[in-house]
Amino acid sequence: MSAIRESGWKSGVALCALMVAGCGSDMPGPQSGLIALTGATVIDGTGGPAFENGVILVRGDELACVGTAADCPVPEGTPRTDLTGQFITPGLVDAHVHFDQTGWLDGRPEALATDVYPYEETIQYLWDDPGRWHRAFLCSGITAVYDVGGAVWTVTDEQATDTDRPDRAHVRAAGPLITHVDYNAPFMTGMLADQPVFLPMQSETDIVEDIAFLQSIGSQAVKVWYLQPDPADVERLDALLMAAGAAADAAGLPLLVHATDLREAKVALRAGADMLVHSVGDQPVDREFLDLLAANETFYAPTLIVPGNWSEAVIAASEQSVPVIDDPNGCVDAALRDRIDNIAAYSDFAGQLSPEDVAARRAAYQAEMDVMQANLIAVYEAGGRIVTSTDSGNPLTLHGAAINPEMEAMQAAGLPASAIIEMSTRTGAEAMGLSDRIGTLEAGKLADLIVLDADPREDIANMRRLSHVMRAGFLLEQSDLQLYTAPVE
Ligand SMILES: [Zn+2]
Fold first, then answer.
1. Would you say domain 12-91+438-481 falls under CATH 1.10.10.10?
2. Residue 140: which of 465, 486, 426, 474 has the closest Cα?
3. From ligand 1's centre to the CA of 98, what distance in Å?
4. How far, in Å, from the CA of 134 to the mean position of ligand 1?
């Protein structure tokens, strides 16, 4: 574990370009007035044809013109960045993340607890620097994220949510989850008592109070965590979910629901869910589900890779083997890598799974993946509004880096790469309520875009070939955004 080093964000050039107006870098930026990106194939996210040899003019933090050379003549003297042979898309949107989870086993209250990483200390570590995830997102080409549930600070701490800045991704945040599951008592003591992740859902009074609380802290959505209720309690809890939908609607907040089984997902849709934050994974979706989804215009967030990643993290703890992580652009920071490498912190769990248990877990998550992928195609063919979404923060679903395997799992399900590009840009911006500012490359919108070395329409895996990221008019080379560089042999 030697020679790991942070790079990029600590380098003068990146900080200069991001933080200091006109600080003399030769990197094109908004302070230089109009700039031009020329020569690339521009996929603007609208679903229209791409512009070969396109021109993008940027003034300040906005797009001034996007089109062909004829559409967008470059005024003499305008600084140009020649991107011939490359591909430009809007910045990516991850529609399901959690700022208050690490991406490893230590980041959830019910995860494997250890003396090495007590949950309370981990939450403090996350709260101390929400910027770590902003850096990971931009490093991965993600310029907007929907935090669909977490501690109070994920809504109130301006480091997490004051995102009208070029060194941060746009954020919309739901804050604490409303749930019928009682998770507070065993975990939420000490400083965590003031930072609830979960709000009660045992009565209509609870719901009224929960939504008033969410409004008081500035939540931008209402998230309900709806697990399979006890059969004896189904009617009561279904009615409470309906009440939560009505109350969210009255408060003018979108309703986001975690409901991974078909029956519960239908109740969520009847309650007016604006987004289902996961796939239906227990069985194939049916006509009734698809009709409800269409009638509500509900966004559907597949989160395909998170169950398998969870299982592999638990298997790694049992086998005491450091898991291999998928980090194509060096966006997993050294502190998180250290935590993942320190598998000995979980030595209490060594050998807890037999080889048969491991095989059974892998078979179970593969079976769930098969159902989720088939359902994704059914939703797509029915014209559903699908948003690329990772659930990053959960074990081995790594902030930023997870976007690539997630998009590839969508492609493996059978979605065309061109459709996945729109789900990862325009539709995500729509789900966040930000489509007037981001999500497509059109004059007047913010200059948030990525540059790739290979065509993502040919293969969505080409999204790994990230060359540059522009956020609010600042163009940075991906190498200047990297958080980790592999040791030199
Ligand atoms: Zn989640």
1. no
2. 465
3. 6
4. 17
